[in-house]
Amino acid sequence: MSKPSVVVVGSGAGGAVSAWAYAQAGHPVLVLEKGRNLLPGIGGPGPVRTTFSNDEIKESRFYEDQDPLLEPRTQRTQGEAGRRVARSYVGDVNDLATTVGGGTVHWDAKVPRFWSQDFHGRSLHGPVRGADVADWPLSYDELAPYYDEVERQLGVQGDRTRMPARTLAQAPRRHPFAMGPNPPMVAGTRLAEAAGQLGYHAYPFPMAVNSRPHLGRPACNSCGFCSGFGCPIHARGGAAVSFLHPALRLGAELRDRCFVHRVETTRDGRRVRGVAYLDRDGRRQRVRADIVVLAPSAIETARLLLMSRSNAHPDGLGNRSGQLGRNLMFHYFTAGLGYFAEKVHAWRGPSTTFTLDDFVGPVTGAPARRHGLPYLKGGVCEVGGGVLLLDEARLLADAGFRGTALTSALRDLALRDHVAGIQLVGEDLPQRSNRVDLDPRVRDLHGFPVPRVTHSPHAFERAASAHFGPKLREICSRAAPGGLTTTLNDQLDALGEASGYFGPYATAHVMGTARMGHDPRRSVCDGHGRLHDVEGLRLADGSVFVSSGPGNPTLTLMALALRGARERN
Amino acid sequence: MPSMGKEVTRRQAVRTGAVLSLLAFASPTRVEALVGETARARGAGRFLSGSELGTLRVVCDRLLPGPPRDPGPGALEAHAPEAIDLLLAAFTFDPPLIHAGGPFSGRAGGARDDFVRFEPLDRQAELGWRIRLEGSRGRRSRQFAGPAVGYQEIYRTGLARLDALARRRGAASFATASAPMQDTLLDLEHDRVVKRMADLALVQTLEATLGPPEYRGNRNLVGWRRLGWAGDRQPRGWSDAEVTQVDP
Questions:
Q1: Closest-CA residue in chain B for A71?
Q2: Closest residue to A411, CB basis, from B72, B186, B211
């Protein structure tokens, strides 16, 4: 008897891992991806080829990205929602790469594990007024074997011997990393040394980048066009090369440019039957499946389930709890910058090679009470990043530089050579009012309603940023004495909530909207991503996150997807 | 009644049609040569008229100057205006000049320049770029999210507006106006037509001057050389010493 058939929606981090696990177990698997396939040869007998390149123009021209003219999103703040403003922005709202491989095609590939405390936030730290803090329905120990397996397949570099004791206590590792760290970027080294002088502990950032050949892919050569760029040599692991490629070789099928617009169920709404989609020629298609895995990203999963409402599920598929679309979380970035007298070229390398997690928290006592909060939490830091040439030029242009002021700034200030920073990946608390719903008017190219994001930071994020920001500045000042230092958190208020660079709207870390939990009245799916109310339908992307955690979420997302796929329906 | 701008566009499309069929069989190197020849022969761009291209040259020069105002080469030396014009005319090439190829350019190892073979767009990607460059033009298939003004119209109306404003201030044209007047006009925050063109031109001047030369700007790599920028680095990358130590 053949195994149950599986349709996976989305070929990014969660979808590729799911497809791989199901294909390994002998299921017939079909992967539907709404983006283009830019990886010739994927799934074939030879190497995966690519046309990604060190090209700052192509990177800005939606080569692998969702085109906001075709698939816009809309946005408003909580305050605007309260005043019945339908939307205050139409365009790119936390868009992820829309192509085979999803966001990991051009990710930063930083893969910190969440900490044990993150899975028990409500029990350990208590509630926060105005937020919907809850425990996850699983523990770190339950997820740890899947972290191990995903890391092995991705090929993760790091150095366990240099990790702080608290990090290893919170996120124990049974195995060493698959390979040692990349050559340390000099700007990161300077900042790491300064952090050490101030009592902090920087260490090599675990990342899915080959420091030596691994599983047929070459070692990274530190070209510098990393985060935001597809890797031209596949030295960086990710959904496509590490999971989808072997899944296809095991027999899974991939169809690109297929937009799934509805999940179909039995008439009583209790069991999934398949999906309806538009194929690359715009023709309506349907495919039956015993198991449907949704992994198009937290925002798109909420949108798809809301578009799949029926008589049996009038408020959206699986939305008996009323939680669908709610508790949307990003990360709240805060950056410190230093201007170094020497040419530290902080862009040269895999974005950053150091991290520190002294600012994860929680911090209790006076710093929290000052803001009327029970505790503060920050997150891990990316230590030593910089800007490429066109990045720099666009930043200067945004800042008002024109003419000879612009040319002399590019030549003499040379931010690309002299500026390096530390970026805090700040935890974003879940709030019911931060949500995704369907825009009542704006449509995409296919005529379907686009997702509308309503989001405002909680006082928690702003307070944490205000608390930890000066510490970032202190490290930068120590590393670049005499140079200019600043934190960008202060500028966020001046720029407004829709600041394009920092705060919640610049991040590709998108979580929540269909949180997991034990209680069907308070969550959309269980700890394995299975919808409480629809048999055979499971979620395998960032939508299931209960909290946003202290760092880059993709490794945790992949580990959750693998755990879910390994749990048989 | 169609506007003059649309008539010109249609005539240009007809004029370039014959060339297009040849370009489909031409090598990338040959395409490069044809681009240069057509521009030189007519004094006009692929999309912009000679007069419009002249105005754009002044705009680009004010935004990112070269000699004599700046010691290093600027937008004009990089051929940024011509590269912007080619983007506006991207769909007169097949594949359109939107996304350069990859993975390597041959500048940092590799046997050939992959960048110069532009990537084809599929049906959906083409729709997005048609809207971005040409606008929705009242077509239902392009107006699902509302009317859109394309880059072509932004430039055409913006450049004309600069000329009109210069004449209103006593100059014969924007190109012949005094430098302070040119800067004042380019900085008009309250004039929506000028502002949207100036904002777009600034970003695209930077891209065309400082981006890969396969987009037909950054001529002879002047944009990179003036700033000591190595450009794309694959497949050679950087040595361990170049990563771990400061540059002299």
A1: B145
A2: B72
Rg of chain A over CA atoms, in angstroms? Answer: 22
Contacts of A62 in chain B (CB under 8 A): 125, 128
The position carrying tokens 């014009």 is B85
Residue ranges of B 134-193 with Cβ closer than 8 A to chain A? 144-146, 148, 183, 186-187
The CB density around residue A478, as the number of other CB atoms within 10 Å, is 18
Question: At A472, which helix (H) or strand (E)?
Answer: helix A459-479
Q: What's chain B's average pLDDT?
A: 86
What is the widest separation between alpha-carbon atoms in chain B? Answer: 66
Helices assigned H by DSSP within chain B = 4-23, 28-42, 50-63, 80-88, 123-134, 151-168, 179-186, 192-210, 222-225, 240-244
Q: Which residues in chain A are closer than 8 Å to B179, comparing Cβ atoms?
A: none
Q: Which residues of A touch B103 (CB under 8 A)?
A: 50-53, 232-233
Q: What percent of chain A has pLDDT over 90?
A: 90
Tell me the C-alpha distance between B93 and B102, whole Å: 18
Exposure string of B205-220, with b = 16+ CB inside 10 Å and e = fewer, is bbbbbbbbbbbbbbbe
The pLDDT of residue A483: 75
**Average pLDDT value for residue range A285-314:** 98
Using alpha carbons only, what angle is made at residue A339 by residues A335 and A341, rounded to the nearest 5 degrees? 155
Please state the pTM of the whole predicted model: 0.93
Question: Residue A566 and residue A250: Cα distance in Å, rounded?
Answer: 16
Shortest distance, CA B78 to any CA of chain A (angstroms): 13
Q: How far B21 CA lies from chain A's nearest CA (Å)?
A: 25
Q: Say yes or no to pLDDT of A31 above 90.
A: yes
Helices vs strands, H then E, count in chain A = 16, 18
Minimum distance, in Å, between the CA of residue B218 and any CA atom of chain A: 12
Nearest by CB to residue A349, choosing from B215, B243, B246, is B243
DSSP string, A177-207: -SB-PPPPPHHHHHHHHHHHHTT--EEEPPB
**CA A422/CA B101 separation, integer angstroms:** 33
Residue in A108, A129, A117 with CA at minimum distance from that of residue A225: A108
Q: Omega of the bond prior to B103 within 30 degrees of 0, cis? A: yes
The string of DSSP codes covering A39-63 is -TTTTSSS-------S-HHHHHTTS
